[in-house]
Amino acid sequence: xxxxxxxxxxxxxxxxxxxxxxxxxxxxxxxxxxxxxxxxxxxxxxxxxxxxxxxxxxxxxxxxxxxxxxxxxxxxxxxxxxxxxxxxxxxxxxxxxxxxxxxxxxxxxxxxxxxxxxxxxxxxxxxxxxxxxxxxxxxxxxxxxxxxxxxxxxxxxxxxxxxxxxxxxxxxxxxxxxxxxxxxxxxxxxxxxxxxxxxxxxxxxxxxxxxxxxxxxxxxxxxxxxxxxxxxxxxxxxxxxxxxxxxxxxxxxxxxxxxxxxxxxxxxxxxxxxxxxxxxxxxxxxxxxxxxxxxxxxxxxxxxxxxxxxxxxxxxxxxxxxxxxxxxxxxxxxxxxxxxxxxxxxxxxxxxxxxxxxxxxxxxxxxxxxxxxxxxxxxxxxxxxxxxxxxxxxxxxxxxxx
Length: 402
Fold this sequence. Notes:
mainly beta; Sulfite Oxidase, Chain A, domain 2; Immunoglobulin-like; 2 domains; 6-stranded mixed beta sheet; 5-stranded mixed beta sheet; globular
């Protein structure tokens, strides 16, 4: 079966009103496709509600979990996550891109369209930022009922040093029209979600896109982007959840109205039901995680700890906000004691913390929670939402002390 592509890129002049809202939209499949094909191409996973009460994962969810990967929590020891440990989520396939022939297209409501090679971008002013990135669905698998999707526990995180050129400068060179209200980003990765054939696309308002720290990135941790992380170019929007950082960038377009594509309106929403439009997911909520102490049981990952003073460490973050407090509980969240705050890796990166626990023989539910500079505190019990987005419940670790 052949997939049709999105509307081919072409620059839009300010007076070309008719086509402005069409840029970036995904066309339907072949016009002669049967109604039956349109109604159902693929099998349904689960009972059709998109939710499950079962504490079991389907074969399809396991397939997603094996294809994508989280950061082992012992990786919290590193201020900058080694590239091979950084979490990874790939919606569709990893595109094969030849750097020698690839070009970034910049157009839409601009004075002049641009076609930029990778070398062109590398010759522009460069910045390196440490950014903690977290998937918006991190912790989804801990909810009940839970959304049937990528079954993240708490490991969809990582902090990398990203190097690239500010998007603001590229847009300034193109010359944004005063009529432009959003910037649309299209990746080369194509697939089907919600029965819709699409390229991965997200938009930002012009104010968000022209912030000083929004980067077009070509290096991760001092090396060229690896294919799975978006080679040759990806977007980095510090402080936002991972869905915003579009990989394998193909084109950037200035448009004059809100982009209502699938990845903006159908998913990445705080909603209470399948028919609730909800509110969009955007900036990362405050969270803290600990390096699990002691040693693990192979199957349950429950920890075995020797009695006596135990040093517990971890990291806390809140998008672009500061961390003002981290507290640890040894009794499942009934009482809390402050941890010592350590080094801040960067404005958009996590902060280390440490705590000495006087461990006595028994079974414990160790918890940690953080507070950000606006007074937001991680909830002890996670408020539920239909898609399992923006979860930032306290981190709990089951511990046996002997």
